[in-house]
Amino acid sequence: MRGFELGGSGTGPADAVPKRRIRGRDVGRAGGRDVGRDVGRAGGRDVGRDVGRAGGRWRGRVATALLGVTVLAAGSLAAIGPAEANAPGSPGTPSAPTTVFVEGFENGQGAAVTTLTDYTGAAPSAEKYTADPEWLTACNGLIVSTQAPAAPPAGVNCGSFWNANKQMAAALGSWAGDDASTNHSLTAYTSNNPGVGRTQLQSVQPIPLSAENRFLAFSVDAAAQNCFANHPLLAFYLLDGNAARPAFSSPIDPCDNPGQVIGGTSVGTYASNGSVLFTGDSAGIRLVNEQASGGGNDGAIDNIRLLDATPQLDQGFAPARLPVGAPSTLTLTVTNTAELAAKNGWSFTARLPAGLLLDGASAATGCGSGAATVDVAQGTITVHGDLAAGQQACTATVRLTSTAGGTYQVCGSAITAPVGVDLPGCAAVTFDAPVFDARSYGARLTAPLVGVGPLAASTHSCTSLQGEDGHAVVSAGLGAVGTLGVLTTDASGTVGADGSRTAAAHARTTGINLLGGLVTADLVGTSARARQPLTDSGPGVTDLTGATTLANLRVAGVAVSADTAPNTTIGLPLVGSLVVNQQTPLAGGRGITVTALSLSLLTGVHLTVAQSTAALLTTADTCPAS
User: To the nearest whole number, what is the mean pLDDT of the chain?
Assistant: First the structure.
């Protein structure tokens, strides 16, 4: 029933021609026209003359947000339209949700009036709709445009209110940036009391989703007239099988929250500020009008959109390159979609590659109602939490390190049991291990025209991997310079259980007889070691040790002390010189070379006996020559 009639004057705001509004496109064309707008064109034409004026008292309302839905001004659908869905690589920057489904009530429509249950949506979904009987009679459940005949179809019981249905369709078209003269909307101009909680629209066929465990939201264009009387109260539900999941906190009231008033018709686009976490692979839509009265309760809807608003998960390491043992932080960012609806109950587990060591006590998250839990033995971090309405992103962090050098990459495939998040792209962290440089030999002779050796050379160098090398020679003749007995050497690189790294080398030479007995010894030997401990902040200071063993060393018949100081030089008149226990630092203090005997002759001949080198280099250092 009606408590008013449409007249020609109106006492509310003047029916001036509305300003042009900018609307954006939301999806492609369905049934021959653009049904949702999100990016672009100057919408509307002057529709004030088309939609007439609402008589009786008209009372405007301030456009404020409901608790459960958000009203969007014209042009603001860029926040919810079908731009690219969230993609990995922009943590903290929301992207638009993906449009899963849209209904603009345009498929196959023209001047004829279609009842809701006779309408079929555009391919590929070709959706059908139903409603409770109260919303399919008494001037309800009609798909109408201003092209419709001047008189209502027989039996729809619209009486003198028929033109108002067309006015609302035109106003919604103008609001959406469509052609107001051809736009179709689902109208309800209740001429009887429908009763509370009746279904005004429900999809018949399941709407397929891209995957399970997705967050869904919705938006709808809605209009209302006669806002001085009872208001339409539109409660949208998403259907998860037989379960109806509310996508709102409070019903949509177009009278209280208009984006614009066009010729006495309140219109707006309303997006849920909540979302529904769906476990299934399909969904449905149900609209329940919570207004029981037919006194007022006059409205229309258009451009229903089902949105996949699943947050994006990103991951990154900082720093992304560091020495072994130093701590890096893995940050896992959950970024909301641009409508910023609440997303409650998402979760995931990230499994890290073998070789990365998690600090379980460091796991933390700022996500609402969330927790971050580490299983050190399994190398996993499990995170769950919420995104509040209006929240752009939240993070979880955990510190980690590695005692083994290398690059460790984590990709989306490492995320197990994702619920309500899109998988991340790849992220990598590189731990640079010290490079072992361990070398030794028993003897080496260089001369202007010829060279010998190095003899019994052992090498473990230019690698971060553990290993060892060892060699022996039973005797060596050096021509006029002399003879040597047994030469034995070894070189190694080891990693301790505590993560410390040690490069070590040894050389021993027996039976030394040089220059016709001028220099003799039973045995000379050297050892060199470079050790770097691992601390909580990474590799510590390298500790260097070097030593020389001298057994019965004589020069010109004179005994040389077994504990001769490093770099002791003994002159050989008219022959050359001999350096005993020669110790030379290298690699900026990260290594040492120890030579038992270094003999230099005036003829240009040079002989080194029992030399050992140990160093821990960086990846930036040049690989040393043997």
Answer: 86
